[in-house]
Amino acid sequence: xxxxCAAWFSPNSWRRSAGSSGPRFLRxxxxxxxxxxxxxxxxxxxxxxxxxxxxxxxxHYDWVNAKSYSTDGTIPEEEHDEVWRVSKxxxxxxxxxxxxxxxxxxxxxxxxxxxxxxxxxALELGDPMNNIFIINLPRRPAKLKHVMSQLHQAGLNxxxxxxxxxxxxxxxxxxxxxxxxxxxxxxGHKNTLPHLTTGQLGCFMSHxxxxxxxxxxxxxxxxxxxxxxxxxxxxxxxxGACLDEARGLDWNLMYLGRxxxxxxxxxxxxxxxxxxxxxxTVGYIFKLDAAKALVEAHxxxxxxxxxxxxxxxxxQGFRGHWNENAVEWSKYIPQVLRGLAITPPLVMPYVGxxxxxxxxxxxxxxxxxxxxxxxxxxxxxxxxxxxxxxxAAQGVKDP
Length: 399
What we know:
Blueprint: H1 11-17, H2 40-59, H3 61-66, H4 80-91, E1 102-105, E2 132-136, H5 141-154, E3 158-162, H6 172-178, H7 198-217, E4 221-226, E5 229-231, H8 235-245, E6 253-260, E7 266-267, E8 272-274, E9 278-287, H9 288-296, H10 306-313, H11 326-329, E10 339-342, E11 347-349, H12 385-394
Parallel strand pairs: 2-3, 2-4, 6-10
Antiparallel strand pairs: 1-3, 4-9, 5-11, 6-9, 7-8, 8-10
């Protein structure tokens, strides 16, 4: 998703718009206006990630090409059935989170109550404090090991949340009974797959369950991380400074990591920007009013790939440069998110994680939702019609 960020970068252009002398509120800015170039450090981080990912692919070509992604290779064969049973059982509790689904990691932080901003009104600034939620699938223990290492290095306490495993769905009926469904007549756009995958469904539902938990427990703000995150240098101090910098700004979504498909709408402060159409949900702060707005709108009944959903919910992408269906999607996606992005980002995916991604590509273990049997217990049809049509159109061989 690097998209030649360097082509957007002009050092003088972003520096003219930076600084704190501008207005201290987010103006409504049309997504039809031309975006600004990205700042140099954001471009550098994404280029580095892109280049190292290419190197990783070359060095691990046979493994990458095999697409053996049902587990991450660290789970013994004899435990696969148990992992499947746990993943299947987790589905029936959605959208609620119970104690059995939340695992507290509290030995790394130096204080019982952690705080990023030193201000007395840190809570009002959107400081997540102890409310850090990390989404992890039971069949991804290697990613969980990476999560624990990151928390230890940064000295953070957090909660690891059992994710909804979209690959555990075995029928469309099972999904319907939980009350989840795509946008009406959903069709992917030119930069996505034509049909929603089970992995994309599980991703949206996993994030939704945390928003639902926030609403049920009146949590003012939460930092939500996916389990492939890499925290950047001085994470805690820089996040606190950015929250202080956002004082007086009207936001309810703050990206800590992102993959921009275009330049920013505008530079709001030195380290905060109003983002354009943005990919990744690897790390972001959600305020309670954002969670309430989405939960009360029952967005699970008209969902789409989450990062694209967020962009449209911010009112972005209507020029169609990345998603030619953004205007049509906006009829069903409430524009309730007021987004900021920390720049340069404080969170990036770790190199190689995309090859264990459950949403980034079509894998052996991932199906199009439309290819699942209609009813539970129905036999699987020979082949996967929609997947086969897509592969034929793209000239992509079967895995």
